[in-house]
Amino acid sequence: MTGDDAVAFVREHGIVLASAKGRVPRLTDVIAGAPIAGSWWAHPEGRRIFAILRAVETSPDVLVCRLVDGKITFVHRRLWPALVRLAPRFATARLARVQQRHTSSGAHVNDVQPFPDWVPPEVAAAAQRMTTAAAEQQLRVVAGPDPA
């Protein structure tokens, strides 16, 4: 699997967890070709997994946030209008864009861009045109019907 293959996987599934277990696919398992027991960092393919995850994280077509259970989640651009449409159903912190950078000391630092600051104007416009039912259908794995 390449970085492009991984982005295509995210596009196909729409919402994917980076490495946590949850109700959507876990990308590290897909990259490794089988479920990973323990930390993926210790996996024999750890360096390759890291490189592919970085390719996904830096793709302009992928939002990195904490949508699913507060864990690092990849959301493909095709679902961004639905996500924006249903944003009131989620904690705002779960919709913030997370960008990881590495300091010169090797530490990882998360830069967070709050929602809706990261939303492109064309996505906001598409969200306004979208019906709630259509958004719910697209995000059915993480957002059911409005309880109101």
From TrEMBL:
Highest taxon of source: Bacteria
Protein name per Swiss-Prot or TrEMBL: Uncharacterized protein
